[in-house]
UniProtKB/TrEMBL annotation:
Protein name in UniProt: LacI family DNA-binding transcriptional regulator
GO molecular function, one term: DNA-binding transcription factor activity
Keyword Cell wall biogenesis/degradation: no
Native species: Candidatus Microbacterium stercoravium
Gene3D superfamilies, per database record: 3.40.50.2300, lambda repressor-like DNA-binding domains (1.10.260.40)
Length: 352
């Protein structure tokens, strides 16, 4: 029986910069420059160093580098969930904006909970990011104190704020929902209901709800203000179908269901098609968000399109400006990316 070989201390430790230099036939200082300032080294030398890094499996000690430069080249991003495509699009846009500058993303999720945001924020600040991007503009007092004490650029997104921590890139959820209300009421809908999820920490959904209720009071004050809520935090077709069933049972006189998410609205349309409910003849349906799937269901969804990727991209550029070449040089900004009302076939002008 052959004895199992026990790896030596040398075979399990990290490869050093000096070993990479020896493999490449250059000095350790040249290796360091090739990694951090390749423009100061000839192209041929950079290629030789990179080949030696691949051959030796060398991983730079970023912690030591960060201590020396006071930079981590990391951007912390806090989003409610990774399951929603709008946040995935935002993160993609953010990454495309900051990665050319050598920055990498640390991504954390909050589950629409302000206490969870505070917990993740505290953990990320311990890693000394160069900047922070937050999905939302409402935070605990402790979170705001942490952000102020960190003295790094902060970009809040997805909503506009009257009292921002630093900079803001977003739009007015209230105005967007109000515009959708005006559109459907202008088509003759008089008994709309709102359906979705309204977690206490999802201020954006709560502002859409406030806009719905305000629009009802303004446009159809004689109608009841009915809101159907489903517990949970994730948007899905199944939840939309369940909400649709509830509305059909509990509000049979409703002429329109306004969903807080395109995913919910698409699930409702699919459920209606299975049951022979004619949309929009029997019941109108609207969504919110401008998800790709809204354009592919039949009938095509009426919704509000939000530039998710642009929110991330513009937040990234604003963050780079705030960080600056030698510290925090840019001024705080407020950027309204706006929204677009997208009329579809899921609503139609009502007769009478």
């Amino acid at each position: 029986m052959t004895a199992k070989r026990v790896p030596s201390r040398r075979s399990t430790r990290s490869v050093t910069l000096a070993e990479v230099a020896a493999h490449a036939g250059v000095s350790a200082q040249t290796v360091s420059r090739a990694i951090r300032q390749p423009s100061l080294v000839s192209e041929a030398t950079v290629e030789r160093v990179l080949a030696s890094i691949r051959a030796t499996g060398y991983v730079p000690n970023l912690a030591a580098s960060h201590l020396a430069s006071n930079r981590s080249n990391a951007i912390a991003v806090l989003i409610p969930t990774v399951s929603a495509s709008v946040f995935a699009d935002m993160v993609q846009g953010l990454d495309q904006a900051v990665s050319p500058g050598g920055y990498h993303l640390l991504i954390g999720t909050t589950g629409y909970r302000l206490d969870r945001e505070e917990e993740v924020l505290r953990a990320f600040l311990g890693r000394r990011p160069d900047g922070i991007v937050l999905a939302g503009t409402v935070h605990t007092e402790a979170s705001r104190e942490l952000l102020a004490a960190a003295r790094i650029p902060v970009i809040e997104t997805w909503e506009l704020a009257q009292d921002p921590v630093d900079s803001v890139v977003g739009f007015s959820n209230h105005d967007a929902m109000s515009a959708l209300m005006d559109h459907v009421c202008g088509l003759g809908y008089r008994r709309p209901v709102l359906a979705g999820q309204f977690p206490p920490g999802d201020v954006r959904a709560l502002r859409r709800r406030a806009a719905f209720e305000g629009g009802m009071a303004r446009r159809v004050p004689e109608a009841p203000r009915r809101v159907f809520e489903m517990a949970g935090e994730s948007s899905s077709l199944a939840i939309g179908a369940d909400l649709f069933e509830r509305v059909r049972r509990e509000a049979p006189d409703a002429d329109l269901v306004m969903f807080t998410s395109d995913a919910f609205a698409a699930g409702a349309i699919l459920s209606a098609n299975r049951q022979g409910v004619r949309v929009p003849h029997d019941l109108g349906i609207t969504g919110f968000g401008g998800y790709d799937l809204g354009a592919h269901v039949s009938p095509q969804l009426t919704t509000v399109s939000v530039p998710s990727a642009a929110i991330g991209e513009r937040a990234g550029h604003a963050l780079i400006e705030r960080i600056g070449a030698n510290g925090r040089t840019g001024e705080p900004v407020t950027i309204d990316v706006g929204y677009t009302l997208v009329p579809g076939e899921s609503v139609a002008r009502r007769q009478g």
